[in-house]
Amino acid sequence: MAKILVVDDDQGMRDYLEIMLSREGYDVNTSPGGKEALALCRKRKFDLVITDLKMSGMDGIGLLKSLKEISPEVMIILITGYASGETALAAMKGGAYDYLEKNFEPDDLKNLVKEALSKKGVGKEDAQFMKDVKSSPFFGKMTGKSEGMMKVYKDVKKTAETVANVLILGESGTGKELVARAIHENSSRKDGPFVVINCGGIPENLLESELFGYMKGSFTGAYADKAGLFEVAHGGTIFLDEIGELSPFLQVKLLRVVQEKTFRRVGGSRDISVDVRIISATNQNLEERVKSGGFREDLFYRLNVIPLKVPPLRERKEDIPPLVDHFLEKYSREYNKEIKKISPYAMSLLVEYPFPGNVRELENIIERSVALETTNIILPENLEISEAGDPPLTSADDLEISEEGLDLNEEVAKFEKNLMKKALQKAGGSKTKAAKLLKVSLDSLRYRLDK
Question: Is 217 helix (H, G, I), strand (E, B) or coil?
């Protein structure tokens, strides 16, 4: 991803721009002045420099001229609180791409940055990447070609090329660990360890020693020194799943690691330094937890440098068929069976089901179906989809007619479709049996199903 240098003698503005642009997936460095910026630009190449106009020492125009001498291809955006026609003319003559006044809207800067980088040619690689992932339903161990998953793949790639901490948001079962693993495997740390810990699955007294290790004799049963998972993850990535379950005590401990990259083992007196990227995940609304005092605000902002949202399965139904094919192949091999297909009606039931348990629930359904199936095709009777996913049958007494009225044909069609679905489930997918249960002819049922 594009490398951006932010130059401003105002620490607050530097921090603001660094956080904003890092969240967009850019590799961001900062400098407090023009001379320091020039020294950085002599050591490494930047695609874009965003600089304040008025700075002590070398100002933005001076920096612009010097940068164009040592790196003519760099794109430069000037930010000024003293905008004027003369300023704009001097900036453009000096080779700046554009300028913004300091009261800019965040979206204005984001759009200007994208525009400048696209002019430079940065972004062609992203276009090729999206073309590649669209040609296959797989990215790493993730599966899907929906618009929602395409965004996840793009965000993973952008995020992997930064060093910032990531907070993955999503419901249980959406595959947050797979997203974290994909970030690690596409990053510069891919040859280092990827360590996973479920913060909600371990009691607090054990979780501390798991994360940070312990010294011999620090508690009953500590017969030898033991390294914690942060030490194990040195040089790589640690994935903290269900981060919202951390107790206030452990939140304080984790904050120190995030801020200082050091910690102490339980019972230890020596600081241990580690080089670890932290990826966290939660199915909770941490912002609400912060407001209610259940989660530390300072820790939240340290972990949430780049937020990445994974959509629930019900919002990407087009991904269900490729996921079913993937799980069919996986469990047919595991159970030593030759099941290659799923019946069209069974697939339609899965596509209509809302999947409250997301991809994990779908995987469990397919595994169970493969285990129980005695033929070479998955039939509806072996799906065992939860009744919770079925919409309730509605009687006329349950309906309210508002002032705007209601669509009678639509309500009747819903009722009819629901009855046919239940009859087919009861008949094990047999249309002949379902027609008998509904006391209609087979031709009539087929007509209604086609409709």
Answer: coil
In terms of CATH architecture, what is 314-390?
Orthogonal Bundle (1.10)
Question: Where do we find the tokens 């479709």?
Answer: 417
> pLDDT higher for 281 or 435?
281
3-state secondary structure 385-398: CCHHHCCCCCCHHH
Kindly report, residue by residue over 350-362, the tens digit of the pLDDT: 998 889 899 999 9
Distance (Å) of CA 211 to CA 266, 268, 274? 10, 14, 12
The Cα diameter of the chain in Å comes to 90
Q: 377-378 and 341-342 as β-strands: parallel, antiparallel, unpaired?
A: parallel
Does 3.90.550.10 match the CATH number of domain 128-309? no
Give the side-chain half-sphere CA count within 13 A for 228. 26
Same CATH topology for 128-309 and 407-451: the answer is: no
DSSP 78-136: EEESS--HHHHHHHHHTT-SEEEETT--HHHHHHHHHHHHHHHTTTHHHHHHHHHHHTS
- φ and ψ at 198, to 5 degrees? -95, 105
pLDDT, tens digit, 9 for 90 and up, residues 407-434: 777 777 778 887 888 787 777 667 788 8
Instruction: Answer with the residue of higher pLDDT: 162 or 327.
Output: 327
CB 241 within 8 A of CB 177: yes
| CATH no. of 3-122 | 3.40.50.2300
Q: Where are the domains of the chain?
A: 3-122, 128-309, 314-390, 407-451
Distance CA 175, CA 141 (A): 10
Task: For the domain covering 407-451, report its CATH number.
Answer: 1.10.10
For 78-114, the pLDDT digits (tens) are 887 755 556 656 676 677 888 888 788 888 899 889 8
- As a whole number, mean pLDDT of residues 289-309 equals 91
- The verdict on pTM exceeding 0.70 is no
For 176, phi then psi, to 5°, come to -65, -35
